[in-house]
Amino acid sequence: MKAIIPVAGIGTRLQPLTNKTPKVLINVAGKPMLFHLIDELIKSGKIGTIILIIGYLGEQIRDAIAKTYGNSNVKFEYAEQKETLGLGHAVYHAKKFVKDEPVLIVLGDTIFEFDLNSVLANEYSAIGVKDVEDTSRFGIVENENGFVKRMIEKPAPGTTNSKAAIAGVYFVKEGQRLFKSVEYLMANDIKTKNEFQLTDALMKLVMDGEKMIVFEIENWFDCGKPETLLSTNSYLLNRDYKAEQQYEFTGTSVYPPVFIGEGVDIKNAHIGPNVTIADGSKVKNSCVTNSIILENAVAENAELDYVVLGAGEHITGIQTNIVKADNIISSF
Ligand code: UTP
Questions:
Q1: Staple 226 to which of 61, 200, 259, 332, CB 3.0 to 4.6 Å?
Q2: Class of domain 2-224
Q3: What is the pTM of this model?
């Protein structure tokens, strides 16, 4: 089966981190967020081809995938979305790779926990949802006997009783029908919030008679903002913690869970909990908690809590709730 992953977005909410690094390549709990997703797809044993919709800094994504998955049995295809005109528009770029066959669509900047094999075995198209309290920030699905009845983008308060938010996992039985639905939106310039939305294309399918079931996503971790990037990092480190994983560095106490990459140099430090330090970084005379330090960065005489330090950056002093990248410090 084929999976489509749109990763063409600019990632404005993670700037300045995304000025030079594509959002989906940012290391969360030891590997790029996109690789958490790809590894799950490969583990299912059911996905033979992964189609990436690339755009902004797309070459970096291609290179990273070739390096990591060059020897895997899964085939990678790439399509370029030159303008980020929305998720429906992004997915449409996979058209040339898909025959009249089922496709799985998953967002590249989200980490999911759900039973993938049972979704892929569905008799009908399917959309993943998770209940949320504040429905006004999400696409919301109303169902009738488990089948999608209506989807509403960011509903005004009191306009729906449903709390089922669209989580970013879609299974479409006949991929080509979905592309036709997007073509209809484009031909008639039907946009919501100025974008060709996947939600609108799916709603058109339902209105045209497609049966689409709603399934529960157990857990759903967004990596799109600094605070969610750090909470996802912390969740994954705790989930995957193995007591036998020990780290030893001169004059240093390590409080798990942490991930420390290859070639990392640490001296006289307090590390953890909930810390990722990517390959080639240096930490000297510092205390680091609840943070991500990306590749080849340096923390010296620093006290970092809820900090994302971009690749190759240098930081000192007491810092909290900041992102530093491209030599710019941004608070959150
Ligand atoms: P987001 O809505 O989070 O957009 O897209 P973004 O650009 O990544 O981040 P912000 O909003 O500017 O901070 C969700 C996923 O869909 C992809 C993105 O790359 C991301 O993986 N996407 C979105 C596309 O590929 N093309 C689009 O036109 C829109």
A1: 332
A2: alpha beta
A3: 0.96
